[in-house]
Design a protein that fits this description.
alpha+beta; Arc Repressor Mutant, subunit A; 2 domains; 9 helices; AraC_E-bd; DNA-binding
C-alpha cells in the first residue's frame, strides 16, 4: 500500500469534514464539497459514502441534529431555535427527525443521552463543538477485503443508446439496441455488453440520470438515428465482480471507491467507468447475476 496516497484520501476527507462542521449554518452544496477534494461530484459522493459509511446528505443532516442535541442538553437553546438552526422549516418535522434519531422528543432530551450517542452510532464521525481545532481520524475504519484486480483494458468500439431516467428503467434501451445490432450481425459470440452509468443515483435526480447501453462492434459499424458510436476503455482499470441484483450495484461502487481505492495507493483516472455484464438477466436469477465494475486508474 502506498501510504502517502492513502493519506491523501484521508486528508481530503478531513478537509471536507472540518468544512462541514464549521459551516453547518450555510447551504453546503455537493459541488462545493467535491471541489475541496478535487474529485468530481459523482466520484466524491461514492468515495465519501465508502469511507464514512453514510451519504453526504445523511452525514450533514445527522451532524446538524447532533449539534441541536448538544445545545438542548446543555439548556442553551429552545426547541424552536434548535429546529431552525438544524435547517428544518417546522418544529414538527424537526421533532419527528429528532425522535427517530435519538429515541425521544427534543423536549425530553436529557444530558445522559449525549454521552450515550457514541454507543448508539458507532463508527461514525460525530459533531464536535470545537470543530475548527478537531482532528478527525479515519484510520480506524475497517479495511475492505474486497477482491480487486488491476487490468490494462484495450479501447473498445461500442454502439450505444443513451437512456435518461432511473437505472432500473433501462430495459427498453437494451431492446432497441439489440434490435438494431442483431440484423447487422453485431451480436456474435465475441460481443460484449457494457453499461456506462454517468451519474450517482443518490445525487442526480432520477429523471436526469444518464445511462448508455452498449455493445461492442466492429470497425465497419456506423451509428444510425438514436444509435451512436463511442469508445470505452483504453487504459488501467481496477475491476471487481458484483454478484447479485443490479439494484445493489451502488453499494459495491461505494466499497470499491471509498474502501478499496484509498487503501490501494491508486488514484482515479479520467476514462469512463463502466460495467461488463457477464450473464443474461432474462435467463439468470437476480441473485446469480455477475457484473464486473471497472473504474479508471491513472
Amino acid at each position: 500500500m502506498k501510504k502517502n496516497t492513502r493519506n491523501l484520501y484521508f486528508e481530503r476527507m478531513n478537509t471536507v469534514l472540518l468544512h462541514i462542521q464549521s459551516h453547518l449554518d450555510k447551504n453546503l452544496s455537493l459541488d462545493e464539497l467535491a471541489a475541496l477534494t478535487c474529485f468530481s461530484p459523482t466520484h466524491f459522493h461514492r468515495i465519501f459514502k465508502g469511507m464514512l459509511g453514510e451519504t453526504v446528505a445523511d452525514h450533514i443532516r445527522r451532524i446538524r441534529l447532533e449539534r441541536a442535541a448538544l445545545r438542548l442538553a446543555g439548556g442553551r437553546q429552545s426547541v424552536t431555535g434548535a429546529a431552525f438552526d438544524a435547517g428544518y422549516e417546522t418544529v414538527e418535522s424537526f421533532s419527528r427527525a429528532f425522535k427517530k434519531m435519538f429515541g425521544c422528543p427534543p423536549s425530553k432530551y436529557p444530558e445522559r443521552h449525549w454521552d450515550a450517542m457514541y454507543d448508539r452510532f458507532p463508527g461514525l464521525i460525530h459533531y464536535r463543538p470545537d470543530a475548527a481545532r478537531a482532528t478527525f481520524s479515519l484510520e480506524n475504519r475497517k479495511e475492505t477485503t474486497m477482491e480487486v484486480r488491476i487490468e490494462n483494458v484495450d479501447a473498445m468500439r461500442v454502439a450505444f443508446i443513451r437512456k435518461t431516467g432511473p437505472y432500473n428503467q433501462c430495459e427498453d434501451a437494451w431492446k432497441r439496441l439489440c434490435a438494431w445490432a442483431g440484423p447487422r450481425g453485431q451480436l456474435g459470440g465475441d460481443a460484449k455488453f457494457l453499461g456506462v452509468g454517468h451519474d450517482d443515483p443518490q445525487v442526480t435526480p432520477p429523471d436526469k440520470i444518464r445511462y448508455d447501453a452498449c455493445v461492442t462492434v466492429g470497425a465497419d459499424a456506423e451509428g444510425e438515428g438514436e444509435v451512436g458510436i463511442q469508445t470505452v476503455g483504453g487504459g488501467r482499470y481496477a475491476v471487481t465482480t458484483h454478484k447479485g441484483p443490479y439494484g445493489n450495484l451502488e453499494g459495491t461502487y461505494a466499497e470499491l471507491m471509498g474502501g478499496w481505492l484509498p487503501q490501494s495507493g491508486e488514484r482515479l483516472g479520467d476514462n469512463l467507468c463502466f460495467e461488463l455484464y457477464r450473464n443474461d438477466p432474462q435467463s439468470t436469477p437476480p441473485e446469480e447475476l455477475l457484473t464486473d465494475i471497472y473504474i479508471s486508474l491513472e
